[in-house]
Each structure stands twice: as C-alpha cells, then as structure tokens.
C-alpha cells in the first residue's frame, strides 16, 4: 500500500517561493502502517503529530511513508525522502533490523535521525553517529532493569524465552547482564510463531521461580492467552513490549498480575504526562501506548531544537538536540555521550481499572539508567 | 524429558495437526476438484476469526461466534467465487496465483479499514478455560482438548460427506473428469460454488477456533497458509485423506522437532549452541519432511499420478 500524506504544511508563501528550508524543518517519517506491526507505527506517528500540533508551529512539514516492516522497502523510502523530498530529519522506524538498514546510510549523508523506537546495540557502541539521536531506549535497557529487579526480589531460577532473531538475543543478553541468579532454561522460538503449546509445557515442567519473556506484537498476545489457559502458575515478567496497551486490550484479564519494565507509564506522576494522556485519548479515542509516548517525546525534542537553532546550521542544530531541553513525559531525560537516553526504568504491574486492563507503576527498577555500549562510542 | 511431558507434547502436536487439517481440507478440495490454487484461503481464515471476535464481543456467546465465523467465511467464499474465481478456472496457475494474491491484499486492507490495525480480543469460553486432569497425571488445557475433539469430528463428517452422499459423489466425479460430469447434466457452476463455500467455511471455522488462543489480527492467515500448502503437498494434492495424514505428520513433526531437537543436540554440545542449532533445525523440520516424502513419493502420500 502506498500511503503518503503531507501534513502541517509550511505557510503558503514559503511554498510558492520554494524557500521551505529557510526557516522550517522538513521531516520524513518511515514507519510501519500496514501488516502485523501496524499498531506500533500508528501510535508513534500519532504521538509525534500530537506534539507538533500542540507546539503550534506551522513550519514543520511532515511526509509519512509506510515501510510494511520490510527492510528493502524502508531503504527505498529513505533514498526517496533524502534525494527527492530533500528532508532534513528522518524518524519513525519501529524495528531494529530496519533501523540497521536505514540509519547508517542517512546519517552518513548528513541528515539527522531521531529514533522513536528501536535501539540496536550496534548503533549505541562502535556504530554511533553524531547525527543519530535515540529518543526511546537502547534495546537492552528494559531487560537490564528487569534483571536487576529480579535479583533484588529473590528470584533464584528463571526460564527465558524470546524469538530467534537479533533483538530477541539482545533482550535476553540484557536481562542476564544484571541478573545474578540461575538460568533454568533459555528457549528461542521462531520469529512470528503463533502456537506456543510446546514451549508452555516446557515452562510448566521446568524447575524455575519465574518466566521472563520478550515476545512483541501478536506473538505476545498468542503466548499470554495460551499460557493463562494452560494451568501454568509461574509468575511472568517481561519488557514492556510484551505488555503494551495495544497488546493488553487483546489479551484481556489473562495478563493481570504480570510485571513488566518500562521507561513510561500512563499513570507516571511527572509534569505533563497526565495532560499528554488526556489529550491523546481525546484526539484519537484510545489510550496511548509507550510507542505513542515515544513518538510524542520525539516531536517535543524536534520542536525544542527548532526553538534554539536553524536546521541549516547542522552543528548548532546538533548541539540543540543534544541539550534535550524538553519536558519528557517519562520525567527526567538526558542524552548520554552516545546520544542514547539516560532515564529511569520503572517496574509496572498489569491491573484492571474499571473495565480496562492496563499497567500501573509499582516501583523503580533502575534509576538514571544508561546503556552498556556507550564506552565503545567515539565521536 | 519424562514420559508425562512427552505425552503432553504429542497431544500438542495432534492438536496443531487437527487445526492444520481444517485449513488444508478446503485447500485440497478446491485444488483437487477445480484445479485452482487459492492463495486467499488464509484471508478466509482471518475473516472467520474477525467475525467471531466481533460477534463474541457483541453477544458474549462463543457458540454464536463460531456460527458467525462459519457463515461469514462461507458468504465471503461464495462472493469471491462468483465474482473473481469463476473466471480463473480455465486460466493457467500463474494467473490464478496473481489474482488470488491480489485478493489477499484486498481482504487485508479491507479488514484493517473496518476493524482497525490493533489486534482484537477473543477469549476461550469460560467453560473451557483452564486445564483438565487426564490419566497418568497429565494436565492439559481443556480448550485444546476440545479443538482435537472438534477437529476429529469434522474430519469424520467430511469423510462421510465425500464417501456416502450424493454431493460427495459429485465432488469425486468432478475430481476425476470435469467434462464428463457436466455432460451428464450436473450443474457444475453450482457444484463449484458449493465446494468453494465449504472450503471457505472450514477455514473460517479454524480461524475462529485458533483466534481464541492466538492473536486476531490482520495478516494472521498467511503463516498458516504456507503450512497448509506443505500439508497438502505431503498428503497428495486433492486427497482429503492425504490432507488428514499430512496435517497430523506436519503437526507432530513441528512440535516434536521444537521439543526434541535441542535436547538431542544438548547431549553432545553446550546448552546455548544446542539451543541455537536445535531451534534453527526445528523450524526447517517440516520442509525437510516434505522434501524426504517427495523424494520417495513425488505426488505425495495419497496423490494420484
């Protein structure tokens, strides 16, 4: 599907003279709007657009393209946005493998890339770049916090489960980095698998205190429904990707009591968050997920940099981005030297509020967390 | 690995196989009788699941949801057959693949248009939630046990329909000689539409049954479609019995491969390498099975040459 929409166009005078670049910013968003992962991309897009709209700026021109979750499509779109649309800033990619295909080539061509999701370790360490800013997280972050939390809370033996692809292995490696207990078993499933009966039987039979899994999107929905129906009773934990708002709606009460780590939650008591949740719900008629919050933060970051510098002066604009002078809906937010976030990771629990199954913050899992790869970054 | 776990995994394989059969039965009937490759079969599976989720959330009744899935998929099947498929019987397979692939895209975007991009909620009925205790201390999810039962009943019903009824006789006749059955005065157009609707209804039914324990989302049909094709190739294209045996073989091979291969490699290498190689090989296991069977029986287990 070809989806292209140009929104929030620059003022008419600038358009007719063609001098769009003089004062405004042209943003290219490549994200997933069709196929199984579309919910994530739509949330990022909507969050981003809400931030731009609320800023009241009319000089942000946004071009949205659908990558269909395919790396080759994403690469083509990036070429098109850079060469014919002549965008200044790119953003939007959801999946780590797509980010790896696109980000190095666009930053090498002098464009800025703001990641609203996906933080592959390769781009945080040796492959870091001055024009690459990750506004979401490094892939390992939630898992490192979860590993630390599990150790502190007396979990001695854990069963680990993830899909057999790079992000799945990153996530499990992140958990093990801060987890001091024993690993009862470590199982990798096929990416996109929908039936987990065999794995659930292994979990039930295993000698472990807890199950920790990373299964984003439909995989997480299938797994949790089947797990709840299997009579297995081991407590479950995971990074927030397995339990975001879009997934919880489809799992329902089967997810109650599950713990998960996240840098954001809709009940987080920090300035601006309640207003964000209220305005997002009013604008789009659904609760925001963490992807929406990341899209929103990405929009706020862009606007904050535009207040300070003109995008045509790349050095000044880069410095303005690095300052991160905006009020993130996750609370305190700073960029580390590798342009990845320093932020607090919270532990959440799935609860029922009225008729809605949702997440609630129950504590801090890691204060001012930063990733482990920054030491390898030389820029 | 103890015996109880092994039996439980066998049941899992059986359940997976039975599910696959519901998909493969329609696919093999349509190919066998009409010579049509229908890539949009997975979309009918998705339509069944979405219809069931919509009806379940409106009425709260799982039985009504199952009926809705049968009806919605059958109606969609009839419409598709009359509008598109009917024009494809005399064309070559490449044209059929192209047209039915277009149908996949149309159904996917149409479903997204109506229901949105977020997965829908569909849960197992409360009477079948949780696990039941079987002999030898095995505890097994009640819903999966019900799927095995329903699938076997459907398989038996199909067997009776094809071997014992007049419509079954016509289906078999259509399979062996299309021109002759038309010459004998059977309305072949109506027969084709009926077979297509039957295949579609079975796919939609499978979608609803599986939707309750998996994710009801756009694009859910395509991974299953590939497995269903593997199944009918193994069983022999056009043969219902082949589809049944093929489905059980694929279900058991896939499940047991996922469970046993890592254990097997773990016997002589370190656990993480064994897991990596074992799970990689497990995801290939059904294709290896297919290749091996085709090596000895090029038309599949029950295929006619």
| Terminal CA distance of chain B | 42 Å
Low-pLDDT stretches of chain B are none
Which class best fits the helix and strand makeup of chain B? Answer: mainly alpha
Report the β-strand fraction of chain A as a percent range. Answer: 15-25%
Radius of gyration of chain A: 20 Å
Q: In DSSP terms, counting alpha (H) and pi (I) runs of 4 or more, how many helices of chain A? A: 13
Elements of chain A, N to C (H/E): EHEHEHEHEHEHEHEHEHEHEHHHEEE
The CATH class name of chain B reads Mainly Alpha
The CATH architecture of the largest domain in chain A would be 3-Layer(aba) Sandwich
**Amount of beta strand of chain B:** under 5%
Provide the CATH topology of chain B: ABC transporter involved in vitamin B12 uptake, BtuC
Q: What assembly state would you assign to the polypeptide chains in this entry?
A: heterodimer
Total discrete domains of chain B = 1
How much is the average pLDDT of chain B? 88
What is the percent of helical residues of chain A?
25-40%
Cα-atom radius of gyration of chain B = 20 Å
How many domains comprise the coordinates of chain A?
Answer: 2
H/E element sequence of chain B: HHHHEEHHHHHHH
- Biggest interface pair, counts: A-B, 41 and 52 residues
Shape of chain B: globular
Distance between the termini of chain A: 39 Å
Structure description:
The complex is a heterodimer of chains A (379) and B (305). Chain A is α/β, with parallel strands linked by helices and 379 residues long. Chain A has 13 helices and 14 strands. Chain A has 2 domains: 5-137 and 269-335, Rossmann fold (3-Layer(aba) Sandwich); 141-262 and 344-376, Rossmann fold (3-Layer(aba) Sandwich). In chain A, helix 5 links the parallel strand 5 and strand 6. In chain A, helix 6 (141-152) runs parallel beside helix 7 (166-178), helix 9 (217-229) runs parallel beside helix 10 (245-251) and helix 12 (290-308) crosses helix 13. Chain A is globular, with a radius of gyration of 20 Å. Chain B is mainly alpha-helical. In chain B, strand 1 and strand 2 form a beta hairpin.
